[in-house]
Structures are given as structure tokens and as C-alpha cells.
Amino acid sequence: MFFSRLVFASLTVFCLTAFSFEAAQLPNDEVEALRDIAKILGKRDWNFSVDPCSGELGWADLNPVEGQENAVKCNCSFSNDTICHVVSIILKAQNLQGTLPADLGRFPFLQEIDLTRNYLNGTIPPEWGSTQLVNISLMGNRLTGPIPKELGNISTLANITVEFNKLSGELPQELGNLSRIERMLLTSNNFTGQLPPTFAKLTTLQDFRIGDNQFIGQIPDFIQNWTNLEKLVIQGSGLSGPIPSGIRLLGSITDLRISDLSNGTEVPFPTLSNMKNLKTLILRSCNIVGQLPDFLGEMTKLKNLDLSFNKLTGDIPRTFSGAVKTDYIYLTGNMLTGVVPDWILQKGENVDLSYNNFTTHSSCQERTVNLFGSSSMNNVSTTVSCLRSNHCPKNFYSFHINCGGKEAVINGKTYEDDTDSGGPSRFYQSRTNWAFSSTGNFMDDDRPTDSFTWTNTAKPGTSALYTDARLSPISLTYYGFCMGNGNYTVSLHFAEIMFTDDNTYNSLGRRIFDIYIQGKRVQKDFNLGVEAGGAGKAVKNFAAIVTNQTLEIRFYWNGKGTTAIPSRGVYGPLISAISVNPDFVPPSENGSSISAGTVVGIVVAVVAIIFVVLGVLWWKGCLRRKDTMNQDLKGLDLQTGSFTLKQIKAATNNFDPANKIGEGGFGPVFKGLLSDGTIIAVKQLSSKSKQGNREFVNEIGMISALQHPHLVKLYGCCIEGNQLLLVYEYMENNSLARALFGPEEHQLNLDWSTRHKICVGIARGLAFLHEESRLKIVHRDIKATNVLLDKYLNSKISDFGLAKLDEEENTHISTRVAGTFGYMAPEYAMRGYLTDKADVYSFGIVALEIVSGRCNTSNRSNMKEECFYLLDWACVLKEKGNLLELVDPKLGKNYNKEQVMTMINVALLCTNVSPVVRPAMSSVVSMLEGKASVQNLALDTSVSNDEMRIKAMRKHFQDSIEHSTSESLTQSMALDGPWTGSSTSAKDLYPISLGSDYWESRN
């Protein structure tokens, strides 16, 4: 196999180096190449006072720690052992923070580049395609962009490992030309599209992994060609079933993992009888129906079997007893029937049969066999038979658990001890009214035994709730039993305590899982690190209805996220604490001793008082406003957490004016600090606002349904009395407008790569809104102030108060045009004709601003003055062939000319007067990423028609300005500068004030 040959070659090279360095030396050109690479990678400890092939410490790792190898290896057998050449550069876990060096061709004999687990960013250089590399390993970095098609030219390449990065785009067809490839590891990136049909030629493949991506289409039939395959991993990849029947031809495979297929098509159990060497078989959440096949019992080498969360039926066959030597068996969440075989109960190993329909079994756990919910009695009983809820001494109305930790008292609430060691098929029941069930073992880790609880050692002094946590590889379920029926609030406390919050590879882990309450998925792809703002804390609140005295909270790993950072086997659900409280006043434990007459008298008096109070409130108009608010909220399905007014007041110091950071059409916006340390931005609906409710509620409804890395995150809302509040993530670097052309002291020095990243991020966010979201949404007010920047300068689109649902219609004629002059598409501004192409136009304007560093329209001291328009200037420069004059002078010559020209031409294409010509945002993303060419529309030398239309549009707005009141300006469209929102926008969160002579000083 590849690695055995590579190790042998490395040892040979090391020996050649060790015994020859006294006479042989590295040529000066390769020494200089190493100097350049050191600067690019950020490698600062190489000692160039000695020959890099000398075997000196720093160049040769004599006693390497596994996973932290740090060496430059040479072959010194050239020219009668007088010349050395670099053949391998291995820099693992060095926390390098640079980029990948492009010119590896300066090392003519280089075979291996291994930069595993660092903090490198940037893209994979296409220049690597001209090398003779055998091994490329870039696992665990921050790399972005597509895999260059040029890598398909490396005829010698045997291994490409790019797992756990942020690479994107479709896999290039050219990779199908890698005639010697043995390992292709692509897990945990953002790859899209289908697997290229050229991959059918990769018959030398032995290890292929594509989990945690966004591929589309079915698992391709051509995998049957990979007859040398030993390991295949397709978990949470985006691909759909069925599993191809040709998979039976892969007789050499020892490790097969397929899970979480994207469609719901039911398929029979695949024929795998030819796979005699299987050691690991995972077919989880694959919609497999039918009975367990007999051939599973004939797989004598099988150690791990996971068929959980399918629709398997029937008895466990007798032949299945051949699996008695299997270490782990997971049949959780199926519909198996019959009697649980004695050999399973006596096996003494880890078996999980929970959630099936076996004949009644009174125990929830027997030895290491999890039998919770496994009985057919569950279908006719309102409770799980093995729980004590069948014999409840009383009803409980709350419970609080310090998951994985000892008992702790927080804010007067006692969080119970949860220090049970857990296990791969473990059910545990507390002494009070809760229990947990854990399924799965951590695979591929180096630990002799799995740990299902974890202690935070990185941040001493952390709150007791966030010091410890419980974790699970697949599924972790908490239960509350003997609960009084009614409505409850479930508060889930999360803290990432296994990743760091620094600039090292230890911070690059991504923990992603699904959350279920009462069997309903309430959060898909919950990204703990993102929600917690890195290695911080997050609290999510959910509503739950208890009808059968049992509350179920489940966390499920859906194959997403990293699995090997900071080390292999780190993944799966993690929970720090659970708090469940009633939304009602629980009845007294001792009952009531008040007489019936007294009760009637109290009721009559209370009703009378209520009528008097309601009358007064109605007379003062309070209830009428509340009725309006309730009407606005009717039918709204919020997908967010909820906050109490008390929490918001505490976070903002009772809306202290010192915390006020903006004022918009809805009212003030405040910066706040939650009790767990999370910084938030709170939009408060003003009691004087008469136009806010409809748009504000519209914003809640839509943002709550949207989750995307390039959309501003809505943490939750507060709807209490006449208060309507939105709680957003706080964006540390303010808005794009302030970064580019705000007051000088607030501007950011954005280099070209950052600007390009920001622009691509905006495009991805819009592509999601237009094409990928379940809802089809037109934003209507894309502009630089509505693009916010987080602490890593990632762009996120804000302000959905003006967003309009497309509702399966092609166009809209809007009688209420809302947007910002200078960014509005002509057809929308003039005729109210609204499609997603209006957003495309606005994006084009923003792209020009990013390139030029200046605003689309100049600031005006007098509304009747002639305005400067960036778009006009760009069109003139295009016609003259001088588009590079548009580039921000701050960049100097430090920019990628090809990317700049692409971005400008894409912007001009997006701002075409005809909406038909403008591309879809998904096409814009492809063009900006260099995966598609830009349509080159020749400018018409007689542009009178366009000019007339644009002049008419400008006159339309000028007239509107002169005849509109300030109130109407606030309510409909922002016309006093591109940094003024027409509703609560980024300006409300991060106000911008530019001097009237700002642009004049730049010219």
C-alpha cells in the first residue's frame, strides 16, 4: 500500500542523508527556495547557517513525535554522493500561519509535501500541477477555493489528502487522469456538484473518503470499478441513495461507511456477501428496509457493525450469531421484532438494540446491551416500559442536569450530578426523574478506551456548568420522566471545551450535529463552534409539549464536521447542561384546602377586576396596539431561541443610552452582553413606530428559517407585552461601508485577498437566498452598509426587513418600492418590477465599491447637485480599455490582476440594464471563483437608450426627494446617501457618519 512504500522510501532517504551529509550538499538554488518557502509558510526556526541536508536539529527530526514530524528530507546519492536534493518536506502540527508556496518546481526531485494540521490559509496553487509529487497532505488547515484542475497533470501522484479544510467548488474532471492515485481524502470541506464521471478511471484507488460535503446526485455506479478499494467513507456527503448494486464487486474492502443519505427513498439491504474481509460496516440512516441478511453472520472478521436508524424488520436471524466476535453492534432505531436472542444478552460486549419492537423486555440495560425503548409494549403504552414512569410517586415539573459534571447550584437551581462514565451502548437512570441513553463508539482514535465525558482544562475558572460535558459518537438522548403534562421551555447549554480559541490548528475543529425535541428535529446542522463564537458558550431555548409524562431530548451526529482535530476521534454531540422549566404554574404538592365557596368568590372577584383593567387598557389604546402586534405575529413559525425581557434588560443594562449603537426606522439598537459572555446586538421596536410591525415580523419569520455562513445570525427574539425585540450576533468589524469609506479612523486596511473573499461571501449569501433556501427570497436592499464583517472579516448579509418572499411567482409588481438610491435596479425603481435580478444589480454595485474603495454615489450637500456615479465611471473606463484605473489606490500594485478584471467584468454584467442578461448568483460565484468564464458583452457605442432610461430613473428619484416628507423617506426608500437604510439596517447596528468633503479629499 501507499504508506508502507512511502515509509520505506523515507527511511532510505534518511539513511542516505545521515551517512552522506559530510560530503554532499544541497545546491544553492534549492537553499534559496527553502528560504522563500519559510517566509511564505511562516516557518521561522530553520537554521540556514548549516546545510539543510546536514541532518542537524531543525532540519532532521531524529526522534519525531507521531503527528508532529518536522523535517526536510534529502537524497544525497546524486553525482557520486556529492549533491543532495530535497525529496520531502514534512511540517506537521507546527501551527504555520502563512500560505502554500506556489513554486515547488524549484525542487526537481520533490516527492512529498506534508503540511498536516497547521493554520495555513489561501488556495492550493495550480503551479503544483507541474511537479512530480507522490504525496500531497494538507489535512487540517484553513484552505479555501477549489482544487486546481492542474493537479490532474501529476502523473506520479499516489495520495492527495485535503480533509478538514474549507475548500469548495466542484471536483475537477481532470482528477480522473491520476492513473496512480491510491488515496483521495476529501472529507469535511464544502465541495459541491456531482462526482465527475472521469473518476470511473481511478481503478488504483484504495482509500476514498468524501464525508461532510455538499455533493449532489446519487452514489455513482462507477464505484464498482474500484476493485482495489479497501476503505470507502460516504458519510453526510450530500449524496443520495440507493447504494449501487455494483458495490458487491468490491471484494477487497475492509472498511465501508455510508450514512445519512440525503433522500428518503427506501432501498433493500445491499448484497455484500462478497466482502469477506470487512472489519467495519456502517450503513446508518440509509433508508434500508427488509430483514437482516444471513451473510452478516458469515463475516467472521467484522469488528464494528452499525445499521442504526434504518427501517429493518423481522427477527434477528440465527445465522447472525456468527457475529458474536464483533466488538460493537448497533441496531438502534429500527423495527426489529421477535425475541432478543440469548447470545446477545450473554455476549458481554457492546450491543445497542434501543428503539425497536422486540417482545416485551423489562430491563432498560442488561450488561452492556442497551434495551431502552426496545419493547413492542412501547407502541401500546403511554410510557417506556422499563422507566419508573409506570410507577411515578408524583409528577415532576422541572429538571436540571450538569451533563458530565458534578452537582452544581447556579442561580438558585440545583443542577444534578451526571458523572456516570457512559459507554458505547449505555443507558443510565438517575435517582430522580431523568435518564440518558448513549449510542456509538469513537472510531479511529488512538485512545485505548473511549471517554464519554470531558473536562475543560484549557480555561480554568470556568462556570461549573461549562467545566464538564457529556459527549457521544452517534446519538445521545436525555429523558425526563414522571413529568406533568403541559408546555415547557428546554434550555440547552453548550460550550466547546475540546477545541481552543486561538490561531492554532486546535481551533479549526467543527462540531456539527442535529437536535431533536420530542422526536422532532428543531435544529439541523447545529455548529457548536459557530453558535458559541469559537470555544465559547451558547444557550439554545426550545419549546416542548409533554403529553405522556415523558420528555425526550436527542442529539444526533449526522456525519458532519471534523473528526480528527485536534486528534482523531474528536467529533459527535456534546452538551454541557440541560435545564427544563414549565411555562405554567405547577399545582401545589399538598393540594388545596380552600372551600368551594371561597374559590367561587375569588374567581368572581378576579374576573371583575380583569374586566375593569381590560376596559382601562382598551380606553388608553394599549390593547389595540397589542392586538395589532398579535395579528402581525399570527401564524409566524419561529425557528429561533426565545429571550425574556428580563434577560434583554440585563444584557443592555436596562437599555442604557450608553449602550445605544444606532437608531433606525424601528427604533433604537443596543449592544448587549448576555450572562454567558455572548455579545449581542438588540433591535428594539419603538412604541412610536407605526410602520415597523409588519416589516419587523416579516424579518423574524424569514431570518428564523435561514441559516448560512454568509447571513447575519439571528440568535432569537423577545415578544413580551408591547415589546418586540430581535437578538442578533454582534459583528466585531462593523459594516463593509465603514471598512471601505467610513471615517478614516474606522477604515480597515483590506488587502486584495480579503476583498475578494468578502465579495465571494456576499455572492454565496445571495445565491443561498435566491436558489438554495427552501424559501425563495429577494432581499431588495443589498448595499455596503447591509454587509457586516465578523472578527475574521467574513462577510454576512444583514437587514431582511425589506426581504420579499418570491412565493413561487416569477415576478412582482410592488406598489411599495423599498430600497436605496444608487443600488436599485432600473426596472424595480421605475416600475416596481421585482425579481431576484434586482439583487444581482445591487450586488454588482457593491462589487465595484469593493474594487474601487469608493461609494457608488458621492455625498451631496444639496439634493439638486449633479451626482457622481461609480457605475458610470466604470462603464467609461470599460469603453476606454482602462478598467484597472478603477482599483483602489490603497492597494497599490498588490492585487491579483486576473481576479480584479474578473470582478469588475462580473460587476458590469450584473448591472446590465436588462435583467435578462444579468447572471444568476450561483453563476456569479462560479465566475468569481474562476470556475466559469465571464460573459463578455461588448458595450454599445450608441448607449443613448440606456442613458435615457438611467437619466429618467435619476430624475424620478430627484423628484421624489423634492416632494417627499421626511417620514415617507424613512418609511419607503433611503435617498440621503448610500449608508442610510430604508428600514432597520446595518446603519442601525453600526451608524456611519461621513463628512461632506470626504470624497473631495480623496480625489
Structural class: alpha/beta
Number of strands: 53
From the N-terminal CA to the C-terminal CA, the straight-line distance is 64 Å
Mean pLDDT: 81
CATH class call of the domain at 736-1002: Mainly Alpha
Domain Protein kinase: 655-934
Keywords: ATP-binding, Glycoprotein, Kinase, Leucine-rich repeat, Membrane, Nucleotide-binding, Phosphoprotein, Receptor, Repeat, Serine/threonine-protein kinase, Signal, Transferase, Transmembrane, Transmembrane helix
Catalytic activity: L-seryl-[protein] + ATP = O-phospho-L-seryl-[protein] + ADP + H(+); L-threonyl-[protein] + ATP = O-phospho-L-threonyl-[protein] + ADP + H(+)
Transmembrane segments: 594-619
Structural description of this entry:
The chain is of the alpha/beta class and 1003 residues long. Among the domains are: 390-582, Jelly Rolls, CATH 2.60.120; 620-729, Phosphorylase Kinase, domain 1, CATH 3.30.200.20; 736-1002, Transferase(Phosphotransferase), domain 1, CATH 1.10.510.10. It is 21% helix and 22% strand. The chain is built from 19 helices and 53 strands. The strands form twelve sheets. A 15-stranded mixed β-sheet has the order 1-2-3-5-7-9-11-13-14-16-18-20-22-24-23. Strands 28-29-32-37-34-35 form a six-stranded antiparallel β-sheet. α12 (836-852) packs antiparallel against α14. It starts with a helix and ends with a helix. The model is unreliable at 11-21, 378-383, 592-596, 623-639, 804-816, 859-866, 940-950 and 955-1003 (pLDDT under 50).
